[in-house]
Amino acid sequence: MSVVVPECCDDLKRERGRCLFNKEELTNILDGGPKLTEKRRRIEKMLINTPELFDDVSPDYLSHEDRYSNELRKATQLMTTLEKNGFTYNDAVTTGTGLWLLMDGNPLSLHISMFLDTIKGQSNPQQLQEWLPLAEKFKIIGTYAQTELGHGTFVRGLETTATYDSTTKEFVLHSPTITATKWWPGALGKTSNHAVVMAQLYLGGKCYGPHIFMVQLRDLETHRTLPGIVVGEIGPRLGMNSNDNGFLQFNHHRIPLTNMFMKHSQVTEDGKYVKPLHSKLSYGTMVQTRVGIVYHASRELSRALIIAIRYSAVRHQSEMVPGDPEPQILDYQTQQYKLLPHLASFFALRFSARALLEVFIGTSAGLGSGKMNMLPELHALSSGLKAVATNDAVKGTDICRLACGGHGYLSSSNLPRIYTAIAAGITYEGENTVLFLQVARYLIKSFRASSQGQTLPFSVSYLRVQPPSSHAPLMSDRGLVDALGAGVRWMVGEAERRLQQLVDSGHSPHAAWNACSVHLVQCADAHTRYYICEQFVDAVSKLGETVSSGVHEVLRQLCRLYILHRVIQTAGILLRCGAVDGKALTSIEEEECHLLATLRIQAVSIVDAIDIKDVFLKSTLGAWDGNVYQRIYEEAQKSPLNKSDVTQGYYQYLRPLMKANL
Ligand SMILES: CCCCCCCCC/C=C/C(=O)SCCNC(=O)CCNC(=O)[C@H](O)C(C)(C)COP(=O)(O)OP(=O)(O)OC[C@H]1O[C@@H](n2cnc3c(N)ncnc32)[C@H](O)[C@@H]1OP(=O)(O)O
Ligand SMILES: Cc1cc2nc3c(=O)[nH]c(=O)nc-3n(C[C@H](O)[C@H](O)[C@H](O)COP(=O)(O)OP(=O)(O)OC[C@H]3O[C@@H](n4cnc5c(N)ncnc54)[C@H](O)[C@@H]3O)c2cc1C
Question: With a 6 A CB cut-off, is 299 part of the ligand 1 pocket?
Answer without folding.
Answer: no
